[in-house]
Amino acid sequence: MDSHTGDDMSVGEVEPMPGYADLITRASTVMPSALRGCSTCGLELSKRTLLDNAYITWTEIGLFFICAVMWTQIRRGLTECLFQPFAQWCSLQPKDSAKMPESSWKLVFYTMSWSYSTYLLFFTNYTFFHDPPSVFYEWKRGMTVPTDIAIAYLIQGSFYGHSIYATVYMDAWRKDSTVMVVHHVITLALITFSYAFRFHNIGLLVLFLHDINDIQLEFTKLNVYFKTRGGGYYLINDILSNMGSVSFSITWFWFRLYWFPLKVLYATCVSSLQSVPNIPFYFFFNSLLLTLLCMNIYWFLYIVAFVAKVLTGQMKDVKDLREYEGEEGAMRAATLLKVQQQSKDAGHLNNSAETQLNNSTEG
């Protein structure tokens, strides 16, 4: 894997970004036409295409697992040595003290990963953000992945491998945690297969458009936790949590529901066939990206619900609508978590915990 140079980039006229109508019209024409033209599509062809086009080494697979374990150990170390002691020193409420390390860890990681993606897209010779169709210029199967993009893929892929484990065994369980696990699996599949099929250019753009919201989300949640601590109320954290909430809502729509479909999906659904007529696994990757868009819309409904509650006066404080609300619900969740850790019959207790949590959700 060699570092990129500007000479390797294909320079041409930049296509104007399409609108929603253009995306729907072109995609609804191109995709059915591609499906009709795939007269030999089937399991056997997919298997042959996979073997002919997927390139990934055992060394890269080994690095993935090593880094996934490394993220888990780094998180545990930071939680025990920094985040938990800091939460205790600040005298956070017990329920906030339990959730603060998770948000702190995610804020640290996503700030680092998004900063690196921003550097690659705006401070190097890559033109993928301003000219998304260029992600497929000069595509060749088994082509060399630039070292800087390969590093970004290793960081992100191993982190989502860690996140699948962390969501189930380390994070606080929320209403959408099941959807979150599905999201991590789909994201990991996209990262792995896009790297193996050398669709790494579009993958870098997808990562950039999604990580910024995670930074704002965790920043907002931390300020929610810190605005009531040590028996006092801190106005600055309340103001920051409200500012973060507004910023999060705006950028979620702008990055995930505007730029993501019009830059990424248009490039993968339409432009990809123009640059590479027989591009492998066209429907597979676009199906995953469309599923990711649906989940972005699903989570956006939580944001809409939050705004509606604030505007109607049903909610006066910023809080995570995905979490189980109410002091009684929080106490029962903590108790059930302790019981689950001590029990050998995990399956039975999970069902019992889910029933009790559902009963306590109304608070």
TrEMBL record:
<dbReference type="GO" id="GO:0050291">
    <property type="term" value="F:sphingosine N-acyltransferase activity"/>
</dbReference>
<feature type="domain" description="TLC">
    <location>
        <begin position="98"/>
        <end position="312"/>
    </location>
</feature>
<feature type="transmembrane region" description="Helical">
    <location>
        <begin position="289"/>
        <end position="312"/>
    </location>
</feature>
<feature type="region of interest" description="Disordered">
    <location>
        <begin position="342"/>
        <end position="363"/>
    </location>
</feature>
<keyword id="KW-0472">Membrane</keyword>
<feature type="transmembrane region" description="Helical">
    <location>
        <begin position="107"/>
        <end position="129"/>
    </location>
</feature>
<keyword id="KW-0812">Transmembrane</keyword>
<dbReference type="InterPro" id="IPR006634">
    <property type="entry name" value="TLC-dom"/>
</dbReference>
<keyword id="KW-1133">Transmembrane helix</keyword>
<comment type="pathway">
    <text>Sphingolipid metabolism.</text>
</comment>
<dbReference type="Pfam" id="PF03798">
    <property type="entry name" value="TRAM_LAG1_CLN8"/>
</dbReference>
<comment type="pathway">
    <text>Lipid metabolism; sphingolipid metabolism.</text>
</comment>
<feature type="transmembrane region" description="Helical">
    <location>
        <begin position="149"/>
        <end position="168"/>
    </location>
</feature>
<feature type="transmembrane region" description="Helical">
    <location>
        <begin position="264"/>
        <end position="283"/>
    </location>
</feature>
<feature type="transmembrane region" description="Helical">
    <location>
        <begin position="232"/>
        <end position="255"/>
    </location>
</feature>
<protein>
    <submittedName>
        <fullName>Ceramide synthase 1-like</fullName>
    </submittedName>
</protein>
<feature type="transmembrane region" description="Helical">
    <location>
        <begin position="55"/>
        <end position="74"/>
    </location>
</feature>
<dbReference type="GO" id="GO:0046513">
    <property type="term" value="P:ceramide biosynthetic process"/>
</dbReference>
<feature type="transmembrane region" description="Helical">
    <location>
        <begin position="180"/>
        <end position="197"/>
    </location>
</feature>
<dbReference type="InterPro" id="IPR016439">
    <property type="entry name" value="Lag1/Lac1-like"/>
</dbReference>
<dbReference type="GO" id="GO:0016020">
    <property type="term" value="C:membrane"/>
</dbReference>
